Amino acid sequence: MRGARRGGAMAALRALVHDFVSGLQDGPAPEVAAGLRAGSWTALDVVEALGSSLEHPEPRTRARGLQLLGQVLLRCHGALRHAEVTHLVLFFEARLKDHHLVIPAVLHGLHALSLSEALAPGLAVSVLKAIFQEVHVQSLLQLDRHTVYTIITNFMRTREEELKSLGTDFTFGFIQVMDGEKDPRNLLVAFQIVRDLVLKGYALGPFVEELFEVTSCYFPIDFTPPPNDPHGIQREDLIVSLRAVLASTPQFAEFLLPLLIEKMDSELQSAKLDAVQTLSACCAIYGPKELQEFLPSLWASLRREVFQTASEKLEAECLGTLTALAACLSHAVLHADTHDPLDTFLSGVLQDCRHHLCEPDMKLVWPSAKLLQAAASASLRAYHHIAGSVLPLLLEQYNQHPQSSQRRTILEMLLGFLELLQKWGHEEGDETVLLGVRAPLCSVVFSALTDPSVQLQIVGVRALTVLGALPGLLVASDLDLAVDHLTRLVLHEEDPQSSMAAMEAAGTLAPAHPGAFTDHMVRALAQELQTEREDEGTRHQRCLQALAAVSTHPSIVRETVPVLLQHLRHLQRGSEPGDTGKTASLCRSLHRVAVQSQHDPESCSFYHQAVVPCLLGLALQAALQEDALLAPGKALLEEEALTSMVPVISAASTHLSPELAVQSAALIVPLFLDGDVSFLPQNSFPCSFQPFQDGPCLAAQRRLVTLLMAFICSLPRNVPVPQQDRLLRELLALSCACDCPFAATAAAKCFAGLVNKHPEGPQLDEVLQLALNRLEPGLAEGPRRTQALGLLLWVTKALVLRYHPLSSRLTDKVLALLGDAELGPAAAEGLGLLLGDAPDVLHRGCHADVRLMYRQRFFTDNVPRLVQGFHAAHSDVKANYLKGLSHVLNHLPKPVLVTELPTLLPLLLEALSCLDRGVQLSTLRCLQPLLLEAPRALSPHGDTLVTKFLSLTDSPAMAVRIAALRCIHALTSLPAPGLLPYKARVIRALAKPLDDKKRLVRKEAVVARGDWFLLGSPGR
Amino acid sequence: MVGHGPGPALENANPLVFRRSGERPVTAREEDDDLPDAIDDREIFDLIRSINDPEHPLTLEELNVVEQVRVKVNDAESTVAVEFTPTIPHCSMATLIGLSIKVKLIRSLPERFKVDVHITPGTHISEHAVNKQLADKERVAAALENSHLLEVVNQCLSARS
């Protein structure tokens, strides 16, 4: 019985083998493998069945037989037993002596076996010996050479110890294998093998130089991938891979360094760059011993490149390498009887650069300074050596040059050296170098601060910032003087750049010296705010900005916040309609203080308790006056003013401690729900606060819901919201029923913000059901469809962000509304809202639940339907779909977009002809980066693109003209031959926007036209 | 038209480098769709300040060859006058620099403008000869027919990598 079954199986096997070998069909190989895995036959059975073909006189037939065996083994190497593997290995090894046509199949078989875990000890070595001995690898085809490298790589991964037992034979064998390799795909593997040989400690013996030669002959890599290269190997891949080999061991140093010097001295920019980068990589593993002999030549080459710089990139690399060299020398272990190689090296650097700093015409000052700074930044020891010599010299030079522009250059160099000192941190870095020159340094900096040249002032401010940050360097009197200078610049310097720099410097220095800043600067600013003058507008503006900038320390925050709030009260008392700009700029200052104090718990809670009740109190006061929308203080109720308060309250609440957050929520929620004003600073109001009640005179109060949103939607997710259910219902009702769009939107956002953070469960389901019940009739008909759409959009956004299952149903509703004659355009805008970042709610900063990749997910789920909807839609509403689509695309990461481009491009081109300016604009903004990043995909559409872009340069909207011109500019990144037919036409057409009435349009036209002129011209 | 091309030896190898002025800040007025903005000196200066020097990897602004105070424009009368200052009085690149400025302005300004480019008085030994060449329309046109010259001019006008 069993014999019969086996007999049947063998017959089937023989039939399959026959089909493969004689029938030249590839299909049977997987079947033979499946039978082997299933136990129908063994590997030896397969060999037996192949029997005659393996001994066939025609080498092609033998190869075909071995090919089958190799393919089967590749699929089943895991199922083989020890004995089988051994037999097969010996079998294949013997075949290596066969006809050259057979060799590729043998190598594939060995490759399959090299993957087997059942390979007995000793076999790996024997396989490699056989290959080294029998096969002339470089006469094989690329793929077969690759197989050899793969076998070696497999064995190196799994049989390291055995291979090492081969000693230098393995190294030598491999050198012969790769000698002459030309294919980039194989080189990547071969370089990796050499790197492993070195790094894993294989015996190199006398073959170090050979191994270096066989790899360094490719340096510098000169390879340009062929067009349409399917393998995707870039020049950079090979460069990095070869560099890893060359910089893998100090043993290569004596051969490599002369080669690098030779290449640095070559004419070829790319070779120079590669050589310098490789040298930099070597410095990480070399010691002074390896470098010593070559230092003078290396320095000469690096110096020459920096002095005669031809490219900024090369210059930067040279400077980086100089740092690496000096750092390497800094690590030297010193012996009593030898000289310090670092000192010798740096003395040479100083000798070659120092004198350039004091030549009267100031030629070569910058390259010299850069070189000195690069060397000095290597280590603290190097810094002392260089700075000790250069700083006094520069200080002397400053005083010798009376002109501002020259002084600025000198001070900028000084600044560079001061900044380097920050690199080591304060524990390690002692400032002894600076202590010696402290007094002259301060006097130089102060003289810069009082110079009439704004540029020199700004450098002075930067230098002061660095000096002040180094502990113990400025004495008390210097410090007071410095703060006075900064205050003067803030208040009285006409140039805004300089005063801005002074503010930022104050903010940076204040944490180190809070006392000096509160005593001098904050006082002066507060005083200035109280004085009234003709030009108080800009003065006050500056004071507010400076107060915010300097609030970088808790003790200063305690001083500045009351000043800012006092000024807000003052503004509100005197405010007239139209005064919202002042409130808004004050709120910007308050916001900055909030952001700066967020991470200090003490400041954060102080700020919250001082600012939030005050803002709420002032807003309530304005809203509760009779005829609130006409009375003084009205400015505070304008949308701009309220909107500017939102980030302040939000930033004051995002980082609260849980206790304070709970406490605050317990006060603010009842304020809005029940009108409980008891905690507000001035709480006697003429009437009660009922923002959620119905009534015509409550319109002003309802607007304040936006402040509730700012607070409640910024709390961390673990802070429970008191009376959440009731609050949600009230917000829902207000968002649908309110006539004022501002208040309705605020309520909808607040609702959405809470829903986004609401834990999963029946409660949330119930709330969402309520919302749906409201939405559906609201959207269907009635006077408040717009409000219903607003609510729909915000709730959808809240759910899309957290991947809530209901989100797709709501998204469907939004998409369906694109076809609505009345709401369609708003729904299309709404898609932008869904995918954009809202500034005030539903972003990560306010702890919203935002999943990664939600945009991609939205894109894959909905774009096909948008496209479908577009084709099915009536022509009146097609524009809505295009607008919606362009919004979605605008928010999508560009790499995703590039892959989807082919399917969407026809639609985008159609969108360019759409009359809606919004669609035009967003389509242009979407196409512009694509032109730069996916020129190939767009290249076939050159004609359409040129025509449509040019016609849009006539648009009445400035933004569209600008975007169209940017696209025309981006077109020049398409392959030039395809564009040349349009060159004359584009240049002619662009003459008109050169005379556009708007400067910003002309600017874009100039850039675009300039590059079109260069297209296909010599010298581009 | 130009004495010689950029040879291996630089005439002024190590010039004093000046700081670039920042991007012109955009004003609210400029962002208003309806208000026209006249072409002013700074706008012209912005056109030419980033032209590359033929010899150095630096811009004309960084070399102080062009300065905003030496740019005069009259939008109403459609005239532009630019003075440029060669780095050294015997600079053989002066004509080429002037030509680059001129070409840049012709490419970038509406056709109605009459463009006058000349050397700052007293800063170059062959000031008059250079000015004369730059003012001669036909010679400028002929110069741009020369593909070697066009290449150098285009290099000066290319955006820096």
UniProtKB/TrEMBL annotation, chain B:
Complex and partners: Component of the CIA complex. Component of the MMXD complex, which includes CIAO1, ERCC2, CIAO2B, MMS19 and SLC25A5. Interacts with CIAO1, ERCC2 and MMS19; the interactions are direct. Interacts with KIF4A; the interaction facilitates the transfer of Fe-S clusters to KIF4A to ensure proper localization of KIF4A to the mitotic machinery. Interacts with CCDC117; the interaction is direct.
MIP18 family-like domain segment(s): 42-118
Species the sequence originates in: Alligator mississippiensis
GO cellular component, one term: cytosolic [4Fe-4S] assembly targeting complex
InterPro entries: FSCA_dom_sf, MIP18, MIP18-like
Designated name of the protein: Cytosolic iron-sulfur assembly component 2B
Keywords: Chromosome partition
Gene Ontology BP term (one): chromosome segregation
Function: Component of the cytosolic iron-sulfur protein assembly (CIA) complex, a multiprotein complex that mediates the incorporation of iron-sulfur cluster into extramitochondrial Fe/S proteins. As a CIA complex component and in collaboration with CIAO1 and MMS19, binds to and facilitates the assembly of most cytosolic-nuclear Fe/S proteins. As part of the mitotic spindle-associated MMXD complex it plays a role in chromosome segregation, probably by facilitating iron-sulfur cluster assembly into ERCC2/XPD.
Region: Disordered, residue numbers: 1-32
Family, as annotated: Belongs to the MIP18 family.
Lineage: Eukaryota, Metazoa, Chordata, Craniata, Vertebrata
Composition bias type Basic and acidic residues, residue spans: 20-29
